[in-house]
Amino acid sequence: MKLFVYHTPELTPPEGVPVCAIAIDVLRATSTIATALAAGAEAVQVFSDIAELMQVSEQWSPDRRIRAGERGGGMVEGCDMGNSPLDCTEERAKGRRLFISTTNGTRCLKRVEAAETVLTGALINRQAVVHHLLTHNPETVWIVGSGWEGGYSLEDTVCAGAIVHSILKGASHNLDELAGNDEVISALALFGQWQARLLDLLHHASHGKRLLRLNCLEDLKYCAQTDVLDVLPIQREPGVLVSHQG
Question: Tell me, what's the pLDDT at 217?
């Protein structure tokens, strides 16, 4: 297994895809996706374009869908919710499909959707991602952060480092064998520095500060937790994620 970390979708190689790709958007798309599936959503369908989300979701009855739209951290008009994982309660999500479009995370998923296996990862479901990688041992793995509008984000990179850290603990490989690029080392170092203070790190992150200005402290507290959900979102068809079984 060879791991490659890319801080944003724009930094991935322009041609080709890996055997396995992991899209990360800790604040908040991939945290929301994992939470929705853990709450019993039948699937999560992602869109880059809000208009397309509205058009496709219109084919589903209101009692079988949830429209989640976020731009700039706020909810898009006409949607049922924004991008807060705390809104994905079992009462709201069970048996429904979440149709979601966000500023950054859905763009990241679009970039890697052609990979043989596409997963989404966040701090809250880190160990489920790691278990899959250790079980299936894919030859090449891209861990791709969503960033913020094309720029670097601390929270996605520290999550990538958390995944690498856990793989090293559970695998017979050493770091030289696993690391496919320098970003793997830097992500691991960032996690090593902040692993006991992840909420503090999210307070320092530019998007964390943006969410705090929108009164989303509880979202930060939730998204800063590690390994609290045993759920692995996996792409069943392009743009559609379900909870992996087995």
Answer: 96
- CB of 98 within 8 A of CB of 56? no
Report the distance separating Cα 69 and Cα 75, nearest Å. 6
pLDDT per residue as tens digits for the range 187-199: 999 999 999 999 9
| AA identity, residue 174 | N
DSSP state letters, 199-240: HHHHHHSHHHHHHHHTT-HHHHHHHT--S-----EEEEETTE
The answer for residues whose C-beta is within 8 angstroms of residue 145's C-beta and 6 or more apart is: 5, 6, 7, 8, 24, 25, 108, 152, 153, 156, 157, 159, 160
Six token digits for residue 180: 């496919």
CB 126 within 8 A of CB 166: yes
Residue positions counted in the chain: 246
